[in-house]
Specification:
The protein is an alpha/beta fold. It has helices spanning 38-57, 72-79, 106-119, 145-171, 185-193, 212-221, 258-271, 278-287, 302-311, 319-332, and strands at residues 3-5, 12-14, 16-19, 62-65, 89-95, 125-131, 175-180, 199-203, 224-228, 292-297. The strands form two sheets. Strands 7-6-5-4-3-10-9-8 form an eight-stranded parallel β-sheet. A hairpin with a 6-residue loop joins strand 1 (3-5) and strand 2 (12-14). The model has no long low-confidence stretch (mean pLDDT 93).
């Protein structure tokens, strides 16, 4: 496992960060084709436990979790007596203001941190990922220009109490760094302009490469970046990259994936298929820029974790290839984000 500094800080994270959104049968942000039996659910939980343990054994030293994922109970069980518990850097998500809430609530930040400290059996949360959905932004406007502008306009009022509360928690030794999780690159630039954030967490993959717009700036300013969903919910893996080979009941056959596969086809026409596996290539693509500290990837079983760890041993794509992919997406247009978790 290789490690990278989080910007100019002394925090060194493994290139793979275990994403705890989907690895148990109780995950709230997962679309299913049907009901699972109790035996299937139990097997998924066993696989998920082994996945976390394999990641930690393989050198992964950071875990990304949230109280609203419905999976933290498993992390709590695993970490309660794990020998590497004190070596893990935790990243948690905090949302305030939410969609139609009026303002930032300092108590939400404090409650989320205290809950994570307790559940994860740790003394410090390394990174708090701030997701500002509001104020007064209905969910249907979450990715619309009007909603985005409303968030940006509210930033000056939010930053003060946000920084004050975070500074108090930091003084208490409970948190390390604050980063932004923007809906758009316009908001990302505004958030960075505020000076409140030590970095950015955002989607970065072959089909959704817009975060490349801010990576050079982050590198110049000594700030970190976490690449989220590098495999695009499994689409960019060997198992699902060729859509025609999927069974008819596979979720990737749904209409919501049409534009994503169409864009991927254009990319493949231009750059060809990689010499390594698609899973490896997609993960390496997300790690190729120097500003990327770690990629947040979900491994639901040991095989998936091993594939992630193996990808970090190779050579990463060139800046030229990265730019080629970005230019293709700019030319075709990136698929909408409004249906992120409904696919």
């Amino acid at each position: 496992m290789r490690y990278r500094k989080f910007g100019n800080t002394d925090l060194a994270l493994s290139e793979v960060c275990f994403g705890a959104m989907r690895f148990t049968s109780t995950a709230d942000h997962v679309t299913l084709t049907g009901e699972r039996t109790s035996q299937e659910a139990e097997q998924q939980n066993r696989d998920g436990r082994r996945a976390v343990e394999a990641a930690l054994s393989g050198g992964v030293n950071c875990i990304h979790s949230s109280g609203d994922y419905g999976t933290r109970w498993m992390l709590s069980e695993i970490l309660a007596h794990h020998p590497k518990r004190k070596d893990i850097h935790h990243i948690i998500k905090m949302t305030s203001p939410d969609y139609e809430e009026e303002k930032f609530d300092p108590q939400v930040l404090r409650n989320d941190v205290e809950e994570a400290l307790r559940d994860l059996h740790t003394d410090r949360i390394a990174i708090v990922q701030h997701l500002q959905r509001g104020p007064h932004v209905p969910k249907v406007e979450a990715y619309a220009e009007v909603g985005d502008q409303r968030r940006i306009d509210a930033l000056p009022e939010i930053i003060g109490p946000l920084q004050e509360t975070f500074a108090e928690l930091k003084k208490e030794g409970k948190v390390g760094h604050l980063i932004t999780f923007p809906h758009t690159m316009g908001y990302a630039q505004a958030a960075l302009d505020s000076g409140a954030y030590a970095g950015v967490a955002h989607f970065l993959n072959l089909v959704e490469p817009e975060a490349l717009e801010v990576l050079d700036r982050l590198e110049r300013e000594g700030k970190g970046f976490l690449a989220i969903r590098p495999l695009l919910q499994g689409m960019l893996t060997d198992k699902r990259v060729d859509r025609d080979s999927l069974p008819e009941n596979d979720l990737k056959r749904r209409a919501g994936w049409d534009s994503r596969y169409a864009l991927l086809d254009r990319i493949r026409e231009r750059i060809g298929d990689p010499k390594v596996s698609w899973t490896t290539f997609a993960l390496q693509f997300a790690l190729a820029h120097n500003a990327v500290t770690s990629l947040v990837a979900s491994g639901n079983n040991v095989h998936q974790v091993e594939a992630m760890l193996e990808a970090c041993q190779g050579q990463y794509p060139s800046r030229e290839l990265i730019k080629t992919v970005y230019d293709i997406v700019e030319e075709v247009g990136m698929p909408p984000k409004a249906d992120l978790f409904g696919l």
